[in-house]
Amino acid sequence: MMFKRLTGALIGATLALPAVVSTASAYELVIPSLDYRTGPYAPNGIPFANGYHDYLMMLNERDGGIEGVKVKLVQCETAYNTKQGVECYEKTKDTPPSRALVYQPLSTGITYQIIPKASVDKIPVHSMGYGRTSAANGKVFEWIFNFPATYWDQAAVLVKYIGEKEGGMDKLKGKKIALVYHNSAYGKEPIRTLEKAAEKFGFELMLLAVDHPGQEQKATWLQIRRERPDWVLMWGWGVMNQVAIKEASSIRYPMDHFIGVWWSGSENDVLPAGDGAHGYLSGAFHAPGDNFPAHDDIKKHVYDKGKAQGERDRIGEVLYNRGLIAAVYASEAIRNAMKIHKTKEITPAMMRDGIESLDLTEARLKELGLPGFTIPVKITCANHAGPRKVALQQWDAKAKKWSFVTDYYDTMNDIVDPLIQEDSAQYAKENNIKPRDC
Amino acid sequence: MGGEVIFFLEIVISGVMAGVMYALVALGFVLIFKASGIFNFAQGVMCLFAALALYDFMAPGGWVDRWFGFTFPVWMAIVLTIGVMVVVAWLIERLVLQHLVKQEPIILFMATLGLAYVLEGVGDILFGSDVKPLDIGIPQGASDWALDNYGIYVEKLELVAAITGAVLVTILGIFFHRTRIGRALRAVADDHQAALSVGISLRTIWVIVWSVSGIVALVAGIMWGSKSGVQFSLSLIALKALPVLILGGFTSVPGAIVGGLIIGVGEKLAEVYLGPFVGGAIENWFAYMLALVFLLFRPQGLFGERIIERV
């Protein structure tokens, strides 16, 4: 009996030891990762989650974390399901020791649901290039960020690009532009901007909704075949993108007049269409490819040590790099928060300050091993969307790679800014928020 | 022909083709329901699983290639995948069905619900979640002949699917009506107890019918996988088969085809001509509405058997 008790106590003490050591020896920076590695949208969720994971693991392995403090990545599976995403948020938000420092849920639906919760819980949310566009107004959305650009900026830039290709914005008059969109909060985001642009430049806007998941779109593309719009824009996600690109190729729509949002511009979207996808365009805010020193560090410190979650030959894919840059923003904001508050044990509120004064310069990107990878970002109290610049990339089906075909365009402030002001003011009114004075 | 007439024809043709694609999925449901009275919720996942297995047998980078350093030619990959589906059918019978022989239909339905998640999970672990571009040599893209000569857009892949569907229905018809096993399957479908009493093995029949259903799932998986790449959203095509089943009846092979055609054409016409008035994206729910309207008049579906029970 005594022997059993002693053995039990010994085993108990041994099992408890790592937890005690971990708590006593080091503060950890909790970053929840709301992944979707299952379900119909997994092909897109996986590379993003891998890029996010690998960069933060690389910091842990190479530098012992951020400024010597380890990152504790808490992964939670959402399956791109809003309800599950909210459950993940509730489950992870109070994870000790730091509580969740930032959420980057990679879903507009989940973002919309956690905006009010995070604002009450005082946890920053960074919906990087997705989510609620008017969160760009930091005076109203104190805890929500959506840099480096919003859907509305992207819609404006795509119109700008079309104008340039047509020989000037005045040449847009009488043209027909179709928007094929995912019939969800995400897909509907650019409609207001495009309607305003249509009013201003005199082009006709044709709206074509595609229901989840978008496996069957024949009726949509037959309408495009009949109406023959001069340009087609797409706000799609998952299988919708692959089917749309294939259908466009089938009806012989010119692929260099078909432009996807940056969530419709990954290798997954174009590869199933084979050569038919050649020339397809999409928005972008970071480079594709794995030819950056940061990628070499990931290979050395994560893949060579067997700590990766993905496959080595998929490093540098568009969505991998997107996860990577999301992790870069988070880690740089943490560094900034530590500097501002002169402590390494930062809290979500400190993290918010870190994001709100983030100044990621070209020089800093170079130090991080990402020279020219993306545009510099400077966030302020009033501007949570940052530079709001967008470039275009094009798919080369023979080389099987994306390449930038434009510089970064500025948004059209005269169209987008009033919309942001109007929508954020409405949100403030509905939620009794007194806009900050900044 | 005028532009509007051509456009109308294109919609009808694409609806017919899409209908055949739905019917290919619906056929798998019908086979199992016909022989065992089980509504197999896992049929969509079986399509996915079969397509995943096929891809990995034949494609560079699949697990056969990674583990053994070679890939199989398409025809052999198809034969091997049929083998996989037979093994899956046998496992389903051994591990699930034989333990639920005398249970209520709802219990069997719930079991297939669980089976769907298990198969999806196993598929994920074995084959990964990436989008896999499936190319077994089926021609794709617009038919140049139809487009250049008549200005009509017809998708070659869907044309192949339609021909395949017709061949499949013919083969199934012969199998059910002209073979001993087919007759045994029909006997089991009519009355389990009577079939058992004349020496028909229920377990063997179930393995056979789930295997045949697995082969039908492979055909559907190939067609849908060639269209959009093999990916996990393929399992959702089961949702497209449901209105087809409601309309065509759960026990009729021709019903699945006719139901598929009505749903395919109906939803396409609705999307194009009614969609603009209600904001578009109506084809998914319109298919169900169409099926429900039929249900009001013929609860057993167009070709389903009328259920008359003595009370």
Summarize the SSE layout with pairings.
The complex is a heterodimer of chains A (438) and B (311).
Chain A (H helix, E strand, L loop, with lengths): L1 H24 L2 E8 L6 H22 L6 E8 L4 H11 L15 H14 L3 E2 L17 E2 L5 H16 L9 E7 L2 H4 L2 H11 L2 E7 L7 H10 L3 E5 L3 H12 L7 E3 L6 H4 L10 E4 L8 H11 L14 H24 L6 H9 L2 E2 L1 H6 L9 E2 L10 E8 L4 E4 L4 E2 L2 H18 L8
Parallel strand pairs in A: 1-2, 3-4, 5-6, 5-7, 7-8, 8-9
Antiparallel strand pairs in A: 9-12, 10-11, 12-13, 12-14
Chain B lengths: L2 H34 L6 H16 L4 H6 L5 H22 L9 H23 L16 H7 L5 H23 L1 H11 L1 H6 L4 H27 L8 H12 L4 H22 L8 H15 L14
Helix pairs in contact in B: 1-7, 1-8, 1-10, 1-11, 1-12, 2-4, 2-5, 2-10, 4-10, 7-8, 7-10, 11-12, 11-13, 12-13
For the sheet with most strands of chain B, the description reads: none
Low-pLDDT ranges of chain A: 1-25
In total, the number of strands of chain A is: 14
**Share of residues in strands of chain B:** under 5%
**What is the average per-residue confidence, as pLDDT of chain B, rounded to a whole number?**
88
Described by strand count, sense and barrel closure, the largest sheet of chain A is: 8 strands, mixed
End-to-end C-alpha gap of chain A: 70 Å
- Please count the helical segments of chain B: 13
The tally of structural domains of chain A comes to 2
Describe the model.
The complex is a heterodimer of chains A (438) and B (311). With 438 residues, chain A is α/β, with parallel strands linked by helices. Helices cover 45% and strands 15% of the residues of chain A. Chain A folds into 2 domains: 26-149 and 288-388 and 419-430, Rossmann fold (3-Layer(aba) Sandwich), CATH 3.40.50; 151-284, Response regulator (Rossmann fold). Chain A has helices at 2-25, 42-63, 82-92, 108-121, 151-166, 185-188, 191-201, 218-227, 239-250, 267-270, 293-303, 318-341, 348-356, 362-367, 413-430; strands spanning 28-35, 70-77, 125-126, 144-145, 176-182, 204-210, 231-235, 258-260, 281-284, 359-360, 377-378, 389-396, 401-404, 409-410. In chain A, helix 3 (82-92) packs parallel to helix 4. Chain A starts with a helix and ends in an 8-residue tail after the last helix. In chain A, 56% of the residues are buried. Residues 1-25 of chain A have low confidence and may be disordered. With 311 residues, chain B is an all-alpha fold. Helix content of chain B is 72%, strand content 0%. Chain B is built from 13 helices and no strands. The longest helix of chain B has 34 residues, at 3-36. The interface between A and B is large, with 38 and 45 residues.
